[in-house]
Structure formats: C-alpha cells, structure tokens
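Final report, Chapter 2: Outcomes

The project's central promise was a pipeline that accepts a single protein chain and returns its three-dimensional structure in a standardized token representation, suitable for archiving and comparison. That pipeline is now operational. To close this chapter, we reproduce one record exactly as it appears in the project archive, with the input sequence first and the structure output second.
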Amino acid sequence: MTPDFLHALTLGKRPEGRTLLTADWVLAWRDGSHHLVPRGEIVMENGEVVFAGKTFPGEVARRIDFGTALISPGLIDLDALSDLDTYTLVLDNQPGWARGRIWPRSYVERGPYEMYSPDELAFQKRFAFGLLLLNGITTAAPIASLYYRQWGETVAEFEAAADAAGELGLRVFLSPAFRSGGTVLEAPGRMVPVFDEERGLLGLRDAVSFIERQHGRHGGLVNGLLAPDRVETCTLELLERTMAAASDLDCRVRLHMAQGAMELETMQRLHGATGPQWMASHGLLSERLIAPHATHAATRDLDLYAAHGVSIAHSPLVSARMGSMLHSFSACRKLGINIGMATDTAPPDMLMNLLMGLVTCRISEKKPDAVLSADLFDAATLGGAKALGRTDIGRLCPGARADIAVFRLDDPHMTPSVDPITTLVLGGSGKVTQAVFVDGRLSMLEGKLAGFDMHEARKQAQSQFDGLLAKYPDRSWEHPPVEALFSPSYPLWTGKDDKEC
C-alpha cells in the first residue's frame, strides 16, 4: 500500500467529492449481468455509484488504485450469524439434543433465563458485524441462536445492533426474532413442541414497533425484516399476522423451514404436512419470504417456492458440516427459484461458502458442469439483492449504492490466478478482503474498522463465550458437567501420569 493510498482514505468516513477506484479487475453491471472489466474504474459520490466501466471521462477528486485486486459489489448475507457460534460445539459432539441444543423438561420447569447480560448481547452483535465486514459482506440479515435465550430476542439488543451497524458502517435488515413455541426434551431422543401463543404475538408486536422506529436510520443502513424463528415454532395465527405486517411495512420475512429431520417430524405431527406445503395451504407463500435452507425440501416444496417467488437463503457450509446439502443449487435455479447466499456460522466466510456451494451442487448432480463459479457469485450479490427486494445493491452501475468489496488477488495461496471470480471461489477466503465501502463510506481497510479494535474485542468475545459454555449444564439433559458434554478432539495429556512411549 502506497502512502498516497493511506492519505486518500479515512476509516469510517465517506470521501468528499468524486472518488475513482481502479484495480486490475472491476466487476461492473451492464446489459442485465455482471461483466469483468480489465483495469476498469468505479466512480462514487455521496454514497452512490456514478460510473462503472472502462474509462471515466470526467474529473475526480482522487484516484485510488488497488493494484492486483478485484473491485466487486459487496457480498450479501441473508442469514448472517450475529452471536458467538455455539453450533461449533456440536460438530464433533453428538447427538445435539444431549448437549444443550434442546431444552430438557427440568430446565423449562425451573425457568429458562438469559445466559448473556444486556451488555454482552450488544457486544456480540457488534463483534459479529465487524467479522462480516472483514469478510467482504456489506449487507446482512442477522441470525442468532435462541437456545441460550429466555425465549426470543429483545428490542433493547436490536436497538444496540442498529446503532452498531450505523457506527461500523454495515447495511442491515433486521428486527428481534420471535416465536410461539419451542421444543422440549422429555426423554433421550424424544422431543415435543410446546407453545405460548401470546408470547409469540407480543414478540411480533415488538418487532413491528422496532421496524417502525428504526427503518431508514443511519442514512438508510438500517432496514426492517421480520424474523419468525422456525416454521415448527410458529402458530398459524402468528404467521398470518406476520405476513400481513410485512405487507403493511413493505418488508421481507425470513422463516427457516425445510431444513431438518426434526422439523419434518414435528410438522407432520402438528399439521400433517411439510412446512412449505402447510404455508401454501394457507396462502402464506410469497416473494416477500426468504427461506433458509431447503436442504430437506421435497420436490413439491420446491415447486411451491418457484410458483410463489420464495427465495432460498443457501448456507452450504453449515449444512454440509452436519451432513446435508441442497438438492440442488442448479435444479432450484432451473425451476426459477431465486437463491441468495448466507453464512449462518463461524467463520462468516462467504467465499468459503461459495466453494462449498459449488462442490455440493456438483456432487448432488454428479456433473462437473452442473454449476459454475459465476453462478454462486451471482447468488451472493444479485440473488441476495432480489431476495431483499432491492435493485440498488449487489451490483455496480450508475445509480446503485456504493457498497463495494475489494479482494486481493496477489495472495501466494491463490497463485496461479486465472479468471478472478474462479480464483476467488476456488482458492479464496474472506482473509483476502482488502477494503469494504458501504454507502460510499470506508468501513474496513486492511483488517481495521473505525472505532472498534477486533483483536482486543476477540479477547472479550472468547471470555464471554467461555462464560456461556460454563452454563451449558443448566440446559442439557441430566445436567452433566461441561467436560462430559464437550470432549476434546484428542485425549488431554496432563503430564500427571507420564510414561515412556
């Protein structure tokens, strides 16, 4: 990085006047699709792209050359983890129901409680938002686990989240998650649903009120999205009111369904149908709906998604970690289903998810050309924008918001480099993200954020996670100690009983 480069940009600020960005490659929007422009130029002013192409003919206040890099639309994450990922605890510790993933009846009767303080809840969202920016994600719809919560998410933590997004410079679509029910573990492997209708409706009212107050704040970075938890934890009345509220608010709804065996079993027991089919029978599927993950969607479910304009939030990494995958990315696209991308786990590395999406699709279809790198990159940009009902993000063209990610292409681990998109998908990771602009503001540069030290914050995040881990026995079956819940990858050698090998 040159001294001129450093002096030309200030973290947390939008450069005054027209600013021209150039690099070896620019991904610009033209004639209905992305185009790669060798040594292209992007010009932005007042948070908006005013030029995207080969050579800008006008005057600019400054020129920033990123060199061997790709200037791209910022990535869009439709299921962006906004807490400290507890799911990683059960990757090698199964079954999940025995390790705090389902509340045992004894914990419910004693009274569920918040396992984080209000300050800790606010901190973890700020930390998670910082990680998203480090990975080239400029737009996020936050998601968090409710397993360690008293019930749903709170207005106070999301007011803090909205402020964090505004201060860090991240575009967000959010409101507190709510639900009418949950699952209780009655005996090993036997889970039953329990419901509290009024609690769910109160959560919806809180979410609607939050959106009415917060939508449009921080120069439009804060946007509303209703987030009922999962289809099997919601009653018909709650979902009917949710979709009606989304129409009144003109916002999107994200509802997890067709994502797991337990959900399918619960929906059959409660309603005699899959989640998508139950929703369709009550007229609740529409283009307003974003549905992660569709890994357990039946053919009829996918046909319904296509017919009603439902978007899939595709999180291939977290699904593959637990042995499932979408069947398949290319098959869904052929049906006409819009697919956006999501991370939904730690690390929130979208490029890693693009590779996993490519691999799992080709495995599912048993064809090496079933999907291309560009298809996944489209999903992480254009697909996400369409799911959110936006045409001014996910692309770089005049009139679009200046949401931009710059990815280095000179990393030795990505050598030799071929086509820049293929190179990033096959060999890249979020660690090659060099800079991020959101609404024209420099939100991240060389791993640094404005007013938030991620290295210091990591220490707090780990300490906070360790504190949560210590409480896991409270909500685990038969309440064993932590060391019995989560064993290390290999036995610990403490040195107490050293013997010669």
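Archive annotation: The first strand starts at residue 19 and ends at 22.
This record, like all others produced under the grant, will remain available to the consortium after the project formally closes.
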